[in-house]
């Protein structure tokens, strides 16, 4: 009888350990650890995919002609660079025959759009920012035309948003302009 009770007791103790300790541990902390490992594996796979795509884009960027890349950087720079822009505009005005008297950054622009000209809401995730500049100039109409053509042909992305002309009998006019400057955020 002892020979049968001892193995039966050991079997009952083993079944108790299985249901009381091993089962909850297996389905509780071990299952959570497995789920965490699976999530980390997915994140690692996504990171590897991202690194592969980043390397591919970097190799494609290295294949771009440096002169074209420099032209693109001057067309849509990474920052506003107000001083460089003002120097460029002043040089363009001098070549055109205009005399710039005042350049101001217009306040009240948000997300690249002036509140006066904004008709649709603009998402804040746009990669291109803009700022409006107010210019005052004096010169002939031909000088204004040359200045506008110069801004058209400029290596920098600019929009002429507004021009106000004050008349004169002498042929020298007073101009107030608003230009919009774009940059890559």
Strands, count? 6
- The fraction of residues in strands falls at 15-25%
Q: What is the rounded Rg?
A: 35 Å
Main structural class: alpha+beta
Classified in CATH, the superfamily of the largest domain is: Ribosomal protein S6/Translation elongation factor EF1B
Give the ordered list of helices and strands: HHHEEEEHEE
Describe the fold and architecture.
It is a single chain. This protein has 185 residues and is α+β, with helices and mostly antiparallel strands. The chain has 2 domains: 1-63; 76-184, Ribosomal protein S6/Translation elongation factor EF1B (Alpha-Beta Plaits). 53% of the residues lie in helices and 24% in strands. The protein contains 4 helices and 6 strands; from the N terminus they run H-H-H-E-E-E-E-H-E-E. The strands form 2 sheets. Strands 1-4-6-5 form a 4-stranded antiparallel beta sheet. Helix 3 (82-96) packs across helix 4. The relative contact order is 0.11. Residues 108-121 have low confidence and may be disordered.
């Amino acid at each position: 009888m002892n020979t049968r009770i001892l193995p039966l007791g050991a079997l009952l103790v083993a079944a108790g350990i299985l249901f009381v300790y091993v089962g909850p541990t297996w389905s509780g902390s071990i299952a959570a650890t497995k789920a965490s490992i699976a999530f980390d594996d997915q994140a690692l796979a996504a990171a590897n995919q991202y690194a592969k795509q980043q390397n591919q884009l970097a190799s494609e960027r290295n294949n771009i002609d440096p002169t074209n890349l420099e032209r693109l950087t001057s067309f849509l720079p990474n920052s506003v660079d107000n001083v460089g822009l003002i120097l460029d505009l002043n040089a363009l005005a001098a070549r055109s025959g205009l005399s710039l008297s005042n350049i101001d950054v217009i306040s009240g622009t948000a997300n690249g759009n002036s509140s006066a000209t904004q008709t649709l809401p603009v998402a804040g995730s746009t990669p291109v920012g803009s700022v409006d500049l107010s210019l005052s100039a004096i010169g002939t109409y031909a000088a204004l035309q040359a200045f506008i053509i110069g801004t058209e042909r400029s290596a920098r992305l600019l929009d002429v948003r507004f021009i106000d002309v004050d008349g004169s009998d002498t042929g020298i006019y007073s101009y107030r302009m608003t230009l919009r400057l774009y940059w890559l955020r």
